[in-house]
Amino acid sequence: MVQAKRELQGKARELRAAGKTYDEIVSELGVSKSSVSLWVRDLPRPAASREHCRRMAEARWEPVRRRRALERQRAKFRAAGEIGRMSDRELFLVGVGLYWSEGAKSKPHRPSERVIFVNSDPDMIRVFLAWLELLGVGRDRWRFALMIHERADVTTAERFWREVVDCGPDSFGKTTLKRHNPKTVRKNVGEGYHGCLAVKVLRSADLYRRIEGWWYGIVVAAGSQP
What we know:
The relative contact order is 0.10. Helix 7 (154-165) links the parallel strand 2 and strand 3 (176-178). The chain is an alpha+beta fold. The protein folds into two domains: 2-40, no CATH class; 88-223, no CATH class. The chain has a four-stranded mixed beta sheet with strand order 1-4-2-3, with helices on one face. It contains eight helices and four strands, in the order αααααβαβαββα.
């Protein structure tokens, strides 16, 4: 009995010297916390490991994160309810602003009158396509091209975007692969990464000119608000 106790005491001191906490020693040896305290109290308190500190911080902040996530969801649904059903004119104006912020634009150094919209957000793509349909731009004039990092799951991403736009593979051009740069710390990784989709409208010079004029009209109208 005495020998067994000495072995437990020795093991407890080894574990404490290795940086284990009282609770970890108790769990491993199956002894009381008071015994552990008596056996190792002359040993210096171990510095908390980085992993232990991380776990403690995670446990402390998890309830806060859950509460914030719930608050964010509630605010999102309340705001969504404020939109309700959009009229054709509202969708028209939204589409003009959407294109002028995210679409390709003619530059003095690179004149171009082509309607090309590029985005990684599938909802942005869906709204843009709904806008094209509102304008009477048929699907026969839609063309798509995927741009994605070469280390991503390209096949899955191509299938994902075909489902988003509800068009067959004939509407898609060749996928552009972005070469890997070891110096770049990529954050757009994981299952949610599907690259960027370019939506190109064929025979779109006249449409581009009208978009440019519509945006100018919005700017003028906004500036004349009382």
